[in-house]
Amino acid sequence: MSLSTIIQKLPKAELHLHIEGSLTPELMWHLASKHSITLPYKSIEEIAAAYQFTNLQSFLDIYYAGAGVLIDEDDFYALMWAYFTRCHEDNVVHTEIMFDPQTHTARGIGFDVFMPGFLRAMKDAQKQYGISSYLIMSFLRHLPESDAFATLEAAKPYYSVIDAVGLDSSELGHPPSKFERVFREARALGFKIVAHAGEEGPPEYIWEALDLLNVDRIDHGVRCQEDEKLMAYINANQIPLTVCPLSNLKLCVVDDLAKHNILSLLDEGLMVTVNSDDPTYFGGFLNDNYIALCDALPVTEAHVKQLAINSFAASFLPDDIKQQHIAHIHSLTR
Ligand SMILES: Nc1ncnc2[nH]cnc12
Ligand SMILES: [Zn+2]
């Protein structure tokens, strides 16, 4: 059986996906027309052609502008439903979805608009496709910590349907230490904690995410390899890294996937997972990321199987459900 057939066949979880980063050029075009919004593009093809990035910030500028077409509850439903349709096609059976409230509240669109849209799509995905999903509310790190506190407060009516709190946006110059107090409060409220660290930022940011934010997972984390002690710590404690290969390539974190360190991290025993980050901006959903790795690196069937197992092991699912998914993978690969 070819690796791409195995990738397709294995049930997988996705743990690092920004819902705003799954907006297709087609849906952006449609919603702009629906709301009479003028885009700086003349066609759907022109939108797709604009997705050429030199670093994280050059992507974020386009990504935040693109989210401006999301106005009403149905838009947020359509956004999430389109993602679940792709999950179904890729055999993603569980997903932990990040959303950026501040991208919407800053435009006057509140939790009472986007949350019902998200939750309706999540319920329909469970019913129609059997896909389970969790929500990760992410704070934008280029904004002040006071803004993150206000967001945590505004989310209060939805605490029971939010599983984790995260940290994303422009990494350089905005270390995890800037958000130490708000994450302490989020943890006290019972949320799981994740943070982007070591994508563009140095290993010190990963240490801060671990020591000051008390994260359960590191998003990206690929720069951990620059610090031997950090690598040893992450390995010994099996801190999951949610790695996003095509994202790293598109944002020039690596200049060639053949030089990506995910396989060496996996071979050293780290709890690494494969994810798509912002699939419509980076040229591929989850299976495309697996396949791109297989094309660029000496990936074996055992690696693919381990990555699929890790995706559940590193998830926030209850232990018994994790074990059921992992047993299913073993039964398919025996
Ligand atoms: N790759 C990424 N890094 C930081 N913030 C993000 N927001 C969406 N995608 C991101
Ligand atoms: Zn991300």
UniProtKB/TrEMBL annotation:
One of its GO terms (biological process) is adenine catabolic process. Its EC number is 3.5.4.2. It is an enzyme of class 3 (hydrolase). It catalyses: adenine + H2O + H(+) = hypoxanthine + NH4(+). Belongs to the metallo-dependent hydrolases superfamily. Adenosine and AMP deaminases family. Adenine deaminase type 2 subfamily. This is Adenine deaminase. Residues 11-329 form the Adenosine deaminase domain. Catalyzes the hydrolytic deamination of adenine to hypoxanthine. Plays an important role in the purine salvage pathway and in nitrogen catabolism. Its cofactor is Zn(2+). GO terms for molecular function: adenine deaminase activity; zinc ion binding. The record marks H220 as: Important for catalytic activity. The keyword Zinc applies. The keyword DNA repair does not apply. Keywords: Hydrolase, Metal-binding, Nucleotide metabolism, Zinc. It comes from Alteromonas naphthalenivorans. SUPFAM superfamilies: Metallo-dependent hydrolases. The active site is at E199. Binds 1 zinc ion per subunit. One of its GO terms (cellular component) is cytosol.
